[in-house]
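hiii so um. not sure if this is the right channel but i have a protein structure encoded as tokens and i wanna go backwards to a sequence. like what aa goes where. can anyone help
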């Protein structure tokens, strides 16, 4: 269109020039001449952006042609700067993300068919990789579980667990279950023999090399009281049985004393730093020395992979059902959604702060792939229509200026 308009004004100028002394002819000639000059000047300027019009590039002080090719690096740097520091600067990116409820966006995506396809793809990729890397996955599972166990505060876990047993009355239930077991053992012949041995060893230890103690024990216990080691063991056994039977009663003083000792021990789990340190040290030592734990976790992981990896459809179906159930429940919990939104934004803002410079590098890396001609054609493709409109405007504005100039000079003459 710009070329046609320029050609029309050139033809009109050639035909009207012969009648320039006539008012109408001069008006048309002046208008078309100015339009032709304006259009040609804009054609030269716009063409010079992309190449050398009529191969003119000298003297360079006057004729600045082939501008894009000569300033390729500067143009790329300008584009990179514009994208990184203007279009996608940190503040604009953060403001844009802050304006969205990202937790809702994420859940909507996960609930969608695309989310299901993504889950399906992840499962397919995992199942194919799991069989190949099952030993590594087993080792990784152990390391993850070991890390979690190291982080767990065993004292708090024990404290909360035992407190829960107290609140729910399991302390009494435990005593009621344990005492009959102890009674059964105390009433056995093995227990009688053990008590007899303990009594005999205690008396021997008491007497040692003391002749006086031996005479007293033999005279007082043997002759006066008539207590042999068998009889003493029987008395002790009977007393233990009576004591244990009484402890089955809820208000028995010994039962209450045991419960108080248990309560005091539970409190120590929370406040006794020495006990806390001992338990933590025992846990860490056990984790360090228990090599069987590693093998057990690896075996469980490998067996699970081998038994389930060939059923991806069933696994996908179960995961999809669980996913939807979790997401529906999550949507109803505003506090969790808010916390989730804050966490997502915090991660994104952190990534923006740390990785924002990668935007410029990415833009520059992709622009560097283009040679001079490709960059020229790329820019030309994007802005050529607007530049040709400038040429049309130049011809039209030139024509209007030509008319005004002719009218002013005509009346002056």
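sure thing!! here u go:
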């Amino acid at each position: 269109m710009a070329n046609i308009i320029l050609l029309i004004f050139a033809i009109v100028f050639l035909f009207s020039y012969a009648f320039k002394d006539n008012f109408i002819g001069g008006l048309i000639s002046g208008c078309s001449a100015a339009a032709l000059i304006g259009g040609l000047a804009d054609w030269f300027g716009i063409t010079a952006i992309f190449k050398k019009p009529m191969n003119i590039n000298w003297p360079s002080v006057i004729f600045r042609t082939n501008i894009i090719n000569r300033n390729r690096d500067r143009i790329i740097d300008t584009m990179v700067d514009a994208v990184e520091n203007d279009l996608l600067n940190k503040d604009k990116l953060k403001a844009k993300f802050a304006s969205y409820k990202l937790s809702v966006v994420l859940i909507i995506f996960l609930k969608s068919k695309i989310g299901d396809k993504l889950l399906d793809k992840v499962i397919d990729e995992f199942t194919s990789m799991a069989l190949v890397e099952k030993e590594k996955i087993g080792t990784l599972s152990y390391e993850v579980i070991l890390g979690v166990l190291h982080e767990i505060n065993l004292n708090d876990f024990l404290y909360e667990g035992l407190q829960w047993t107290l609140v729910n009355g399991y302390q009494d239930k435990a005593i009621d279950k344990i005492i009959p077991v102890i009674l059964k053992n105390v009433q056995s012949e093995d227990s009688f023999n053990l008590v007899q041995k303990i009594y005999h060893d205690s008396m021997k230890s008491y007497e040692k090399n003391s002749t006086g103690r031996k005479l007293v024990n033999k005279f007082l216990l043997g002759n006066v009281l008539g207590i042999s080691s068998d009889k003493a063991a029987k008395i002790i056994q009977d007393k233990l049985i009576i004591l244990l039977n009484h402890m089955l009663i809820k208000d028995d003083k010994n039962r209450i004393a045991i419960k108080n000792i248990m309560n005091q021990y539970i409190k120590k789990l929370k406040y006794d730093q020495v006990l806390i340190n001992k338990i933590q040290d025992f846990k860490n030592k056990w984790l360090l020395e228990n090599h069987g734990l590693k093998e057990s976790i690896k075996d469980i992981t490998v067996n699970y992979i081998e038994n389930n990896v060939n059923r991806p459809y069933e696994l996908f179906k179960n995961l999809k059902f669980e996913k939807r159930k979790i997401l529906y429940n999550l949507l109803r919990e505003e506090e969790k959604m808010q916390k989730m939104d804050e966490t997502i934004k915090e991660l994104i803002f952190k990534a923006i702060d740390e990785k924002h410079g990668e935007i410029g590098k990415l833009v520059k890396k992709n622009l560097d792939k283009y040679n001079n001609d490709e960059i020229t054609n790329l820019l030309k493709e994007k802005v050529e229509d607007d530049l040709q409109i400038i040429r049309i405007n130049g011809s039209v504005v030139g024509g209007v200026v030509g008319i005004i100039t002719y009218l002013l000079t005509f009346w002056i003459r």
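oh and Confidence is low (pLDDT under 50) at residues 219-226.
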